[in-house]
What we know:
Elements: E1 9-13, E2 19-29, E3 35-46, H1 52-68, E4 72-73, H2 77-87, H3 94-112, H4 122-135, H5 138-158, H6 184-193, H7 198-208, H8 212-215, E5 223-224, E6 229-232, E7 235-237, E8 240-242, E9 251-254, H9 257-269, H10 290-305, H11 312-325, H12 330-337, H13 342-349, H14 354-379, H15 386-390, H16 397-404
Parallel strand pairs: 2-4
Antiparallel strand pairs: 1-2, 2-3, 5-6, 6-9, 7-8
Helix pairs in contact: 3-5, 4-5, 6-7, 7-11, 12-13, 14-16
Amino acid sequence: xxxxxxxxxxxxxxxxxRVWVARYRISVAGPDGKISRRQVERIIxxxxxxxxxxxxxxxxxxxxxVDEGSPSVAVTFGQYTARWREAIAPxxxxxxxxxxxxxxxxxxLPKFSFMPLGKIKLLDVQILAxxxxxxxxxxxxxxxxxxxxxxxxxxxxxxxxxxxPCKGVELPQRYRRPQAALDPGSVARLIMSVEEPxxxxxxxxxxxxxRRSEIFGLRWRSIDRxxxxxxVSEAYIDGHWSEPKxxxxxxxxxxxxxxLDRLEALRENAGRPAPDQPIFATRLGKPVNPNNVRNRxxxxxxxxxxxxxxxxxxxxxxxxxxxxxxxxxxxxxxSWLGHSDVQVTLAHYAMLDASRLRTAVEGYAxxxxxxxxxxxxxxxxxxxxxxxxxxxxxxxVAQVVRATVS
Length: 406
């Protein structure tokens, strides 16, 4: 345990150049996380330049900073990472842990593994961000810095370092590439071009907009004929079963009767598997590999139909776009997709419908052309009378121009 106060001591050292040497104790966090005390010495000035009183004042300032601050950490970032994995990482879902391990292995440990934790400063993190910005996407750089910042937040909380060196890091400007979103026509063509069970899989993911991990985590018991839909309470990621992305939330998706009938027919053709069996399973009864479905089914079908190859997420974006374009409340779509913020739904999932934009622009242009023609006709009539102005209704552009033009 760190002593609250200490006096420290001063000694003179040196044969030809006499200096003041301060002795005091600091708290050190070892690799096992235990705090121990260690005596250190530090030269604080020349005897010729500082009186004993002045040297004593400097010593008191050093001790005050030591006693009020965090313990110096004698562990490297690599050693701290091992402790962080034990204490923090288990709280995350499997997919999140897998992503963090990848970032640690590829970027953080090669850079900081042998660096003392307390020696990593803002400049070091800024240099890392700048190096990554030259060769990687801005999103990757942000993910790396976010992970490092989270690790240092824990270190500050545990008292291993005094401050988080990631605060104030300037990240590269993010540029979000246009994302693919399948329109209903393309979805229908894809569904009709593949065999079962993949046709039903594409139909289901298009209607429900489920995440890839959720659609492959569906079991036969997820179907609820009485309520008329499916319940989503699990996700399947790379051989691991876990909760959906929104933890603790069991989502229910209503489905049309004909979709439920199609799922029932699929089950009959599969020999009525047990309720705990995945709906989309291999011959061994395990969930189908999503990458295999995309590479062996979806991409070949897209090429055959002349559609750019897409991922499972394109179906999800397409559903969001179609729902919002059809007049659905964005908050309702947000809830349907399981987003924490409606802005995520509007910014990244509701893609711009170019055909609807053209229709809107052409409609406005036609209205504007009619108004311009009305202005031309009004020029020969002279100013509008007071009765005409009073009788204006609706405030249309043509009416306003007709009433005011001379």
